[in-house]
Amino acid sequence: MIHAAITAVSGYLPDTVLSNKDLEKMVETTDEWIKERTGIEERRILLGNDKGISELAIPAVQELCKKANIEPKEIDLLIFATVTPDMVFPATANIVCDKIGAKNAWGFDLSAACSGFIYALTVGAQFIQTGAYKKVVVVGADKMSSIIDYSDRNTCIIFGDGAGAVLLEPNDEQLGVRDFILQSDGMGAQYLHMKAGGSKRPASFKTVENKEHFVYQEGKSVFKYAVVKMAEVSLEIMNRNQLSPQDINWLVPHQANKRIIDSTIERTGINPNNVMLNIHKYGNTTAATIPLCLWDYENQLKKGDNLILTSFGGGFTWGAIWVKWAYDGK
Questions:
Q1: Catalytic option among 3, 20, 65, 114
Q2: Which of 69, 253, 275, 324 has the fewest CB atoms within 10 Å, i.e. is most exposed?
Q3: Residue 293 bears catalytic tag
Q4: 254 part of the active site
Q5: What's domain 178-324's architecture?
């Protein structure tokens, strides 16, 4: 049986660092309070006029091609997970393909908030497993600074900008995406959303004046659901595949809040030393957190390692993927 294996991983981050100390000058907060509540110490921000998320995604995909030793024209499909596209249309996936010279690829954007990457990875894997395509690129990237109100302490301390990408190719050694569970519940929209900018509330002077084009979050409600759902779905996929905590080489959780990650670790029984963490460096980069973790930890990964990728996001969306790693990172 053919599986979709991750054969290369890359990432790209903007240069500007926004530290907790910087935020102390912007809103009523402290470095200690932010670290205690979230585990975040700093995050990256993309500055400059007319710079969309493609500015980060393009170099990430270019690096991916270089690492995989392929030409962009060899890419069959590019799936771009984001809630901050360059524009409503065309898809940022198409913009990236054009800029990198992926002339033989088609692409589309996928919106599932913080679960965007695992949704997109699952979709991309189907095109490989059916034999339709040989090379599928999955990008998770968000410029959250473009939709954050930096006078709102509830959200501005959490989010950062970044991009990550993986290449999927066929594998007949039982390596790659082995199983997945994806779920959603639209009742969560009331707790985490952006009020205006869609067809329900198009942009107007009033929506801009009322700051309705920024992320709105009821943090306590989101936290309550995330703590439960991320752990539940991780345990479910482990139990379904008869994987014990000792079988898991790496838990790769969405980097939203260190306390949510700690709860998932505790409930799954996975060794804390086998958990990928970079929330302290980048904050919550939404769809980019999981591929950025893979990029940061790539050198520690070994062929055959069992990885559980898990996420929870606005919508609500959540899920988990069991991946058997396909190559030695070193």
A1: 114
A2: 69
A3: no
A4: yes
A5: 3-Layer(aba) Sandwich (3.40)
